[in-house]
């Protein structure tokens, strides 16, 4: 008998055919199974798979192992070891005890894993791959022509969902969970719902990995490389179902699928699909999505790579600088001449603190110091360009309002000193003090370095003076020392006179500035 079948249409499909006569499976001469009721399954893009009734398997099998895999088209597969004398095969066979309707003919049948080395004697049967042809339609046409023009992942999610519906897929909800490289968020979850036609975006933090709702979720299962998930919600309540499925069932869902979206770097992201139609998804529906999932994944990968590049640049060089680099300022010498207030904020006594606290607690203290300085600088419109050892270098570009840049830099310095005092008074708080110098002037804001290794920074006399004023403040025991042009009113500070600074040719008139302004101090 020729058991080859012709694909009935150009959509994804599953066909199960009986095999005629006796079919045998052996391994190295050892009989594994023998049956006159064997079947062959043809599934789009997969090699034909031979299944035996469980009672016709001759090799001893173990009880079900912990391994389970989920197929959107066939259901949940359980596995058993083959217990051959001196040659056991772990998870050597699988079975779909309650296969999906499209594959119901193999429910309770046993299939042998490709790695077992099973050799099949098909007798008079001839099993060959069907000619599946190509899948096309509105979704494929759109992916090939128009999807590349969609500007955001949110708009892509909405457009993709609409195209699925246009193709006849009975979709009520679609989500894409794409993992990212970001210091604070684990990824982005884009969720489209038919009832609103809108996409909601969530950005969970890394705590999601420890949250019970994620630990027992299809997202975790698929992301860990354990395959897809498929659950009919209207007809069965499987004991191994995920808690979220009950929530979706209460909302009227009848069918749920989660399948992997693989990025080129190996990360596995997750596409989930929910239907509220009485019949749920068809095999052709899911097969279409499965077939084009690789292309869909690439579109999301491009969006996430762009977001990753932006977030990593902002994390390491700051928001404004990151935008400049992404904008193409990537060559040595690229940059601008700008007027800016420059702040150099140094942690005093760092060597002593490391000796007293130990390395681990000192790093925690240093992170707290950086967090304090960075947050306050950002809140006042400045940008932290870099951390230099135990110091913070920040810039407040003048733009069209030089007075505001000076004022914001000065207010930042006062707020940092005040906040460090508050931290020292808290329970388990450690006292750490800052030495802050601020100067104003024209600097080069751009790339310097070698051809292979660049640094986006500020270069100029104002940057040098700010660093030296911070050092000078340590010698006169003032936490904030600024150049004369930072103060709109000299009475705001304590005059320190014209001071000669290391590697600065001319004396700099400078002032010590209290952590709080006088009206605030009086009110307290």
Overview of the molecule:
The protein has 524 residues and is of the alpha+beta class. It is 30% helix and 29% strand. A hairpin with a 2-residue loop joins strand 18 (383-388) and strand 19. The strands form four sheets. Strands 17, 18, 19, 20, 21, 22, 23 and 24 form an eight-stranded mixed β-sheet that branches. Helix 9 (359-379) runs antiparallel to helix 10. Mean pLDDT is 86; it is low at 5-9 and 517-524. The chain starts with 13 loop residues before the first strand and ends with a helix.
For this entry, give a set of tags.
single chain; 524 residues; alpha+beta; eight-stranded mixed beta sheet; seven-stranded antiparallel beta sheet; 12 helices; elongated
Topology:
Elements: E1 14-18, E2 23-27, E3 30-35, E4 39-43, E5 49-53, E6 68-71, E7 75-82, E8 89-95, E9 109-112, E10 119-121, H1 138-145, H2 153-166, E11 173-179, E12 187-193, E13 198-202, H3 212-215, H4 218-223, E14 229-232, H5 243-250, E15 255-262, E16 268-275, H6 283-317, H7 319-326, E17 335-347, H8 350-357, H9 359-379, E18 383-388, E19 391-397, H10 402-425, E20 434-449, E21 454-459, H11 461-476, E22 480-483, E23 494-499, E24 508-512, H12 518-523
Parallel strand pairs: 20-22
Antiparallel strand pairs: 1-4, 2-3, 2-10, 4-5, 5-9, 6-7, 7-8, 8-9, 11-12, 11-16, 12-13, 14-15, 15-16, 17-19, 17-20, 18-19, 20-21, 22-24, 23-24
């Amino acid at each position: 008998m020729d058991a080859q079948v012709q694909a009935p249409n150009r959509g994804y499909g599953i066909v199960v055919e009986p095999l005629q006569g006796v079919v045998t499976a052996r391994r190295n001469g050892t009989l594994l199974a023998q049956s006159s009721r064997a079947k062959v399954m043809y599934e789009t893009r997969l090699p034909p798979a031979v299944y035996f009734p469980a009672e016709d398997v001759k090799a001893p099998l173990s009880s079900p192992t912990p391994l389970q895999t989920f197929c959107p088209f066939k259901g949940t597969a359980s596995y058993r070891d083959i217990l051959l004398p001196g040659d056991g095969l772990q998870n050597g066979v699988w079975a779909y005890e309650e296969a999906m309707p499209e594959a119901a003919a193999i429910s309770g049948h046993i299939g042998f894993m490709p790695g077992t080395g099973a050799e099949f004697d098909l007798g008079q049967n001839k099993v060959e791959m069907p000619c599946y042809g190509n899948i096309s339609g509105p979704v494929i046409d759109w992916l090939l022509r128009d999807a590349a023009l969609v500007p955001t992942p949110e708009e892509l999610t909405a457009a993709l969902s609409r195209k699925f519906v246009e193709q006849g897929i009975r979709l009520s909800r679609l989500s894409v969970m794409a993992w990212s490289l970001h210091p604070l968020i684990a990824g982005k979850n884009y969720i489209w719902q038919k009832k609103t036609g809108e996409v909601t975006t969530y950005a969970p933090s890394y705590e999601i990995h420890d949250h019970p709702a994620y630990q027992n979720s299809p997202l975790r299962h698929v992301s860990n490389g354990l395959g897809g998930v498929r659950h009919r919600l209207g007809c069965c309540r499987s004991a191994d179902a995920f808690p979220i499925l009950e929530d979706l069932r209460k909302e009227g869902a009848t069918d749920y699928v989660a399948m992997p979206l693989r990025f080129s770097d190996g990360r596995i992201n997750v596409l989930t699909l929910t239907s509220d139609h009485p019949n749920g998804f068809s095999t052709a529906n899911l097969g279409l999505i499965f077939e084009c999932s690789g292309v869909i994944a690439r579109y999301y990968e491009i969006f996430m790579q762009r977001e990753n590049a932006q977030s990593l640049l902002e994390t390491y060089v700051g928001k404004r600088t990151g935008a400049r680099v992404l904008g193409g300022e990537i060559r040595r010498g690229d940059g601008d001449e700008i007027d800016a207030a420059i702040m150099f904020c140094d942690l005093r006594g760092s060597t002593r603190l490391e000796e007293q606290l130990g390395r681990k607690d000192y790093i925690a203290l240093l992170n707290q110091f950086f967090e304090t300085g960075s947050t306050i600088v950002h809140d006042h419109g400045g940008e932290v360009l870099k951390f230099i050892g135990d110091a913070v270098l920040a810039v407040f570009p003048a733009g069209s309002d030089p007075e505001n840049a000076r004022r914001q830099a000065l207010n930042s310095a006062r707020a940092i000193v005040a906040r460090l005092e508050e931290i020292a008074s808290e329970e388990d708080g450690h006292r750490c003090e800052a030495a802050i110098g601020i100067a104003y002037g024209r600097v080069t804001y751009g790339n310097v370095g070698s051809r292979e290794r660049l640094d986006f920074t500020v270069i100029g006399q104002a940057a040098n003076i700010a660093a030296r004023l911070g050092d000078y403040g340590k010698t006169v025991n003032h936490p904030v020392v600024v150049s004369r042009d930072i103060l709109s009113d000299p009475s705001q500070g304590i005059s320190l006179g014209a001071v000669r600074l290391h590697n600065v040719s001319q004396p700099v008139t400078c002032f010590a500035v209290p952590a709080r302004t006088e009206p605030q101090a009086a009110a307290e």
